[in-house]
Amino acid sequence: MYTLILIFVTLGILYGLAEVFEIKQIKFGDGRNYQNIKMFYIVLMVIGLISTISINFISITNQHSDYLNLTMVQEQKAVYQEKADSLTIKFKNALMDKYPVYEKDIFDNMTPEDLKMLFVKYPDIKASLTTINYVDKIDVLISKIYEQDILSKEIIRDIRFRFINPWIFNFLTPELPDNLIKVYYSKN
């Protein structure tokens, strides 16, 4: 932002000098016409102003878009987590029906991420096609959750950058919505 202000101030000073030279009728070696120089500076200032306004409106639009995308990503992540938890419960029930011997280990804090450890502990569980299908489905959901985390962090990075970008007038950047403040400021 400060760079743009400096450019506009410089162009304004050059325009003012051209005006002064014309009024005082100061001529350089070839007797330049100061009207052309002033028009050139005016055109540069107008182009710069239009560019600045366009950049800021695009940034504001992108900021709103990122807020909506971040909300969507968080909602998708919650849905994937809910599906993974649901499949984990179904997987636990299927295991308890088939393998009541392992009931204690199955009920003790099994999370979707821990399912493959059961295969290591109890190789006979791996023989069941149903259990392998459950674990594969849950793995896909867990990987989607991690992908949503990565996407969420990328969006947060873009949002944070717009707040410090020197080419954008920060007072025009929209405030963070209340529902995203927790996500934005989380250290995860």
Please explain how this structure is put together.
The chain has 188 residues and is mainly alpha-helical. The protein has one domain (2-185). Helix content is 76%, strand content 0%. It contains six helices and no strands. It has helices spanning 2-23, 34-98, 103-107, 115-121, 129-164, 178-185. Helix 1 packs antiparallel against helix 2. It is rod-shaped, with a radius of gyration of 31 Å.
Order of helices and strands: HHHHHH
In percent, how helical is the residue content?
Answer: over 70%
Beta-strand portion reads: under 5%
Count the strands?
A: 0
List the uncertain runs: none
How would the global form be characterised? rod-shaped
* Distance separating the two termini: 31 Å
Tally of contiguous helical segments: 6
The number of domains is 1
Largest sheet: none
Q: Rg to the nearest angstrom? A: 31 Å
Oligomer: single chain
> Pairing-aware structural class of the strands and helices?
mainly alpha
Global mean pLDDT: 77
